[in-house]
Amino acid sequence: MSRFWLLSVILSLIPASALANAPAFTDVRIFEGQLRDGGWKQSHLRIHVYDGSPDEASPFDAYLCTNLGSGDCGYAAGKKFNLFGTVVYPVCVTSEDSSCIEKFELRKDSSTWEEVEYVRSVIAPTRSAEPRIGFPEAGSVSLWRSKRVSHQSGGSDYAIYVVSEGTLDQAGLWTSRGIQAQIVPFIESRGSFRESTLVPSEIFISESEGYRKRIGTRLFEGGSVWSDRFGKGVRAEWSQGVSARLTLRVPTSATGWLGGRVSDVDFELMPIDEDTNRLRITGSPISVSEVNVRIPITDVPEAFKREFPQISGGYWLAGSLYGGSARSLEALREYTKDQATRTRSLWSFETVATSSNSCLADENRILGFISTNALVYQNSAPTFADGRLKYAVASMHRNENGEVIRGSYDLVIRSDAARCLYGFSSAPIEAVVSVTYDKKEEIVATTVTGERDGWLFISAKNFTYSSPSIEVAISQPKPTPMASATPTPTPTVVATPNKVLKPGSRKTISCVKGSAVKKVTGTSPRCPKGFKKRA
Q1: pTM (2 d.p.)
Q2: Does a structural domain hold residue 28?
Q3: Residues 6 or more apart from 333 whose CB is under 8 A from it?
Q4: What is the pLDDT along the chain (535 residues), one digit of tens a residue?
Q5: Nearest residue to 183 via CA among 100, 240, 250, 245
Q6: Could you say which of 357, 379, 396 is where a domain stops?
Q7: What string of DSSP letters covers 485-510?
């Protein structure tokens, strides 16, 4: 599944001839890859038809499935094929709808939540449902307007993009394990602009293979996050103190780990029926400091040349490997003076790679949520080693204003998964977060909000960046042994011999201690120590 949080490094070369006698320079950028404006996928169902080869890596033709089971999507008798789908979530209309946006809410500071009004959906490719294979109705980017919460540009419009991709399983039903979501504030310009479309095309493979059919996407208007015949939206920044809450209906096949850009995250997952869960993510946008510097081509760091092969006159990184991104960031520190060049506010999350640890790799449910404001981060679940959950991040030390960047890290993990790692009982557990710089450990103030509804919430704030490693140690306090009670001896009543009592002078009373009852007889009977006379 493609990821819109994957980090991309783009080097666009400027020909020396365009700069006369000046040396040629290159722009070096590290930023959130597919958060580039307008680079969003569209809803469709497509078939990949292979040339009879059992090897899935063999060349194939791709066709849009307008009519499932007929025409180009007639399942290609005698040939190998795979059916793929992309679903952009529409807004839920009925209680039976699935893979849809149920509710969007905003609030400022500690005010009450506002349910934001849905305005319309962008004109872009959509796809009707295919009940016979379980493919849901697929829509386009939805536009919302708040009455109370504005963004930094003064408007109150927000675009929501939620998408999942999948394929047919062995039973011939469409299934998707992943999900991507983002909320983007924007300023709208009215007018008629370019609409995003799906474009069938051909690409030349080789003399022997000839041309292959492909499906491409014609993107929205340049410089916009969406555009159509009625207007376009230009990205804006979130206001300070705003929190968002997004409620989705997601298929139960969406499993594994989620990660992204939501601070102080509150995570809820509730079953609706055997096929659908209700996923509610609450939190604040995260400010991520990016890098964009211009350096002479002759000074391109060797790390870039090693990590990113030169393609068509430039260098590209398109992948989620933390190592290559972190090494490239380190190579840029001398050119940036360890300082970022731009900060963007983001509210987004996606499915990330799972873990090889069996406690963290359950494929039947969502296991946790990870979020950080680091520019470069491990795009997967935490690793578990030496008794700790470990997570790698990297960023510049200061932002574009020279201020020290303060790091944030949030981890939400299923309580039973944490107990599985350590072999703990069902008793309460606690956590300590540490941030390590060059083998020097710094203990960070940690907030554990408890185990609510089967989830453990852990948060670390205010650490500084270079390339630290974040580690979480989870423990279970030993119960304090209770002192054993000393048994009270049963009192014995001893009669005094050789004393003659007058008739009628003896009395009997009842004495109680807890559930024990003793009867004492005498001329002046008294209860033993520890007992009280029954009234």
Answers
A1: 0.79
A2: no
A3: 396
A4: 433 333 333 333 334 343 344 457 676 777 765 445 567 889 999 998 886 555 555 678 888 988 888 888 887 666 788 899 999 999 999 999 999 999 999 999 989 999 999 999 999 999 999 999 999 999 999 999 999 999 999 999 999 999 999 998 888 899 998 899 999 999 999 999 999 999 888 877 767 667 788 888 888 988 899 999 999 999 999 999 999 999 999 999 888 899 889 998 888 899 999 999 999 999 999 999 888 777 777 777 776 666 655 543 444 443 334 556 777 778 778 888 899 988 989 999 988 888 888 888 887 888 999 999 988 888 788 888 888 888 888 888 999 999 999 888 889 999 899 888 888 877 777 777 777 776 666 666 666 657 788 888 888 888 888 767 788 888 876 655 555 545 544 444 444 343 433 444 556 677 767 656 666 666 667 777 667 777 6
A5: 245
A6: 357
A7: PPPPPPP---PPTT----TT--EEEE
| Domain carrying residue 510 | 506-535
What are residue 83's phi and psi, to 5 degrees?
A: -110, 125
CA distance 372 to 393: 8
Which helix (H) or strand (E) is 417 found in, with range?
Answer: helix 415-422
Specify the 3-state DSSP secondary structure of 408: strand
Q: Domain boundary at 333, 357, 381, which?
A: 357
